[in-house]
Structure prediction request, 458 residues.
Amino acid sequence: MSTVLVVEDDANIARALLVNLRARGYRALHAPDGTRALDLAAHEHPDVILLDLGLPDVSGLTVIRGIRGWSRVPILIVSARQESASKIEALDAGADDYVTKPFAMDELLARLRAALRRGTPEQAEAIVTTADGRLEIDLATKRVRVEGTPISLTPTEWLLVEQFARNPERLLSQTELLHAVWGPEYGRETNYLRVYLSQIRQKLEADGSRPRYFVTELGMGYRFTPSGG
Amino acid sequence: MSTVLVVEDDANIARALLVNLRARGYRALHAPDGTRALDLAAHEHPDVILLDLGLPDVSGLTVIRGIRGWSRVPILIVSARQESASKIEALDAGADDYVTKPFAMDELLARLRAALRRGTPEQAEAIVTTADGRLEIDLATKRVRVEGTPISLTPTEWLLVEQFARNPERLLSQTELLHAVWGPEYGRETNYLRVYLSQIRQKLEADGSRPRYFVTELGMGYRFTPSGG
DNA sequence: GTGTGGTGTCAGGACGGCGTTAAGACGATC
DNA sequence: GATCGTCTTAACGCCGTCCTGACACCACAC
Prediction:
């Protein structure tokens, strides 16, 4: 049985996380602030740590540095969308991965399993590459390369590509993508997606009219298939 | 040790069931009427419920609805042959499966084991696989594989397959499926199901004319049998 | 054997989703 | 205020999906 330390000050989110984790058979501990997080990390030796960046007392960065001083336990960042700068700082400070609030529970659990499986922290997830090596997406530097040469994307194009890169092989519905890129009040504007998918394919696919990486699933959504299948 | 609640007014049948269940190592409770059934279900939290439809006080349907209001414990209907209409009603109300009186004890025990297997939350992996490994249904990425190669399904086909994957070994009535896929106002359009089941079998079964996974239960509904039996 | 109700299969037409293009609206920069 | 790139919106043709109806088939009852 693995022990998960949940560092989260919002009581509702914390409860939801703890309930879900315990239902899946994890031993889940809770720290509502940074001080108690460091304390529990030292005394309970969790197998993985879920860390919210917005804490009341000390910054999430301080917590990461405090733990990395003596332990290489995997740390998953949970952060709001607008905190993207501190997310990168957190990754640089030694965090392993991050999910953006509001997050899908199954996605979080998948990343958690991945972190546990790895055991030893590595930044391998930072660059997503297709099986054929033609396309590279660097999530940390926000850069995309096709056959080695950098491609410039517009902000909206990048946000879309980022969604795909963070969810390889997974079917993303139109509403899901619209929420993630344009905001929660969008959902019916599927024509946006049609236009931008077209542009992205022109830039990143070998043959824009026969997409291999950004595949349409008719009536369901889109899927990024770096594996090639 | 699993707890089984037997709801049965006929004393002879009840005794036979209780003796057989206890001999197999189950903890077996007995409720001779609907009122005590609801009472025991609430206080003892059984792992599975065997429910006779012909009760002296309240109808079996009332019992199902009373339990389904707060619990998802598997419910197996035990009913006489001529009560086929109420059997379908019971399935629509949320029962999981049924056996017809007079029943073979080993068949009942087999269905009971299937219900227990389903009830225990071992769905840590969101991938449902058939016993022979030919068919994989990945609920997280919404992808279906036959012998390793991905198969593309239309939205309606996927919704149906998803229902089956989420309820393996369970008998799903036509109305239940129609409600889940087309919406609550549908219920008589069983021809839809016939067309789509045919398409799904063509795509996913080894021999579309001899289905092994998506089995028809004549007059009752359909059952997904990943175990192969 | 014959009848009946439920089921499986096929094909065609209506419909809506999708990809593409282009033009107008908007905002940033100088 | 002018220019440039980006985002939004509209229009159109294409293609797959959904629904429908017809027919064959099967199990079961008589």
About this structure: Residues 120-124 of chain A have pLDDT under 50 and may be disordered. Chain A touches chain B at residues 23-25, 106, 110, 169-171, 217-220, 223, 229 (CB under 8 Å). Residues 190-191, 193-195, 197-198, 201, 209, 216, 218-219 of chain A lie near DNA strand C (CB under 10 Å from a C1').
